[in-house]
Amino acid sequence: MSDGAVARDWVVERTGKWREPDFPSSVYPTFPCGSGYVVSRNLHTWLADNARHLHSFQGEDVSMGIWLAPLAPRLIQDKRWQCFKVCEDSMLSMPDLTPAEVTSHWYNKLHCVSPCRVC
User: Fold this and answer.
1) Are residues 112 and 90 in the same domain?
2) What GO biological process term is on the record, naming one (predicted)?
3) CB of 65 closer than 8 Å to CB of 78
4) Domain co-membership, 39 together with 10
5) Which domain holds residue 42?
6) 87, exposed or middle or buried, with CB in 10 Å at 0-12, 13-18, 19+?
7) Whole-angstrom distance, CA of residue 95 vs CA of residue 85
8) How many domains does the chain have?
9) Within 1-119, where are the H helices?
10) Inside any domain, residue 79
11) How far apart are CA 112 and CA 89, in angstroms?
12) Is the pLDDT score of 21 beyond 90?
């Protein structure tokens, strides 16, 4: 699995927006955080084959980490995949963008060379 932002020892929230009522541990297993990640064909096949048995937790990234923890996938860090809303010229992904922000970053990338620079 590849993700620039791999969350380790992330405390499980019990209140607020990211509240997790179902996961019993106080800390999540390592998981890819952010709005994008890549999985191998083998992991994709395993997830598809087992989808009906997999419980969804508070977020898809947390769920992915919980589901795949027993398989111990190799995690590859790549800083171009963002976990937090930080704009960098070489980024491949940034989480929590509004539709207007996606449009703006795309326009800036096409016309200003950088998604982070307004022209």
Assistant:
1) yes
2) protein O-linked glycosylation
3) no
4) yes
5) 6-71
6) middle
7) 6
8) 2
9) 41-50, 60-68, 99-112
10) no
11) 11
12) yes
